[in-house]
Amino acid sequence: MKIKPVKNSRLAEVDYTNLGFGDYFSDHMVTCEFSDGAWGEPSIVPFSSIELSPAALALHYGQTVFEGLKAFRGTVDHKVRLFRVDRNAARITVSCTRLCIPAPDESLVIESIKQLVMLDQDWAPSRRGEALYVRPVLIATEPHLAVRPASQYRLLIFTSPVCEYFAQAKSPLYLKAEERYTRAPHGGTGYAKTASNYSVTLRPMNDSVEDGFDQILWLDGQEHRYVEEAGQMNMFFRLGDSVVTPDLSGTILPGVTRESVLTLLADMGVTATERRLSMDELFQAQNEGELYEAFGAGTASVVVPIGRIRYQDDDLCFPEDQPGNLCPKLYDMILGIQHGELEDRHSWMIALE
Ligand code: COI
Q1: Ligand 1: which atom is nearest the Cα of residue 300?
Q2: Which pTM was predicted?
Q3: Domains of the chain by start residue, with CATH
Q4: Atom 3 of ligand 1 has which residue's CA nearest to it?
Q5: Which residue among 65, 197, 215, 232 is best mutated to probe the pocket of ligand 1, counting the most ligand atoms within 8 A of its Cβ?
Q6: Is pLDDT above 80 for 353?
Q7: Cα angle vertex 112, ends 58, 258, to 5°?
């Protein structure tokens, strides 16, 4: 791969004692173009603004796809490894198919990410939970005004040293189960990682933060009764003697951390089911003393405890620090694997060489 390195690194400008999420961008980025019916060769260049026609189709009709994955520095050997990059590459293909974007070869995406992270590995933080976040994005660059798939695209991949998404949260999150707005209808793009799934959440999210909530719990678009996801996270509930997470019905994102949590729960011998889960069922379980725990799972947020969920005029409450709580155990297991402290039984960590 062609590499044009920076003349002067910006690494010294990063305040590693106070990393936010997405405040810094490392020195290089991958760029690759699609035209004349084929993807060209990717190359690595200094991270910079890009030139784009004001008529680029992505800007008008939202023909874009993105991803989020992380590279971690080993606590013991200090080597940087990628977490499950193959799963994110596979999801790019699924998202591209939904958005009518010609999907680049998954091997091209994986190799590009490996090369980029290898080059900028000094940017990977060393504190537990912090990571070098990798953001691939594909955009329709063809200048045109007709509503149709573009004939030109660009793949960009850049990285950002980050802390956990909810690192600033002082206590378990307070969610509002959203009854008015809908994130994704059946037959829509809910399962694809595309910009519009996030832009539709901005107004409701702003309103709910003004009302004192940390995040929204999205419900199904038809009846606003069934749990979907929390925007940046898939949702898990421990009720009775098992864990339930909404099934992948096409309206929620098939999270890589969701998939990893299900695998780890199976390793722990915990029964976990993927199925439809209504707010009524959760309130009934609470009334019967059978609702114990809720947590969210996502790449940016890892796993985070949920403290309360407001639905209509009632709250579901999840007491903190219960001895049986799975969220802290899962958090330690996931970070332990990611930072090379625990055995990587499922071969999730991918070396850079
Ligand atoms: C991720 O977890 O990588 C996400 O996509 C969340 C991001 C939108 C902040």
Answers
A1: 2
A2: 0.97
A3: 2-163 (3.30.470.10), 173-337 (3.20.10.10)
A4: 68
A5: 232
A6: no
A7: 75
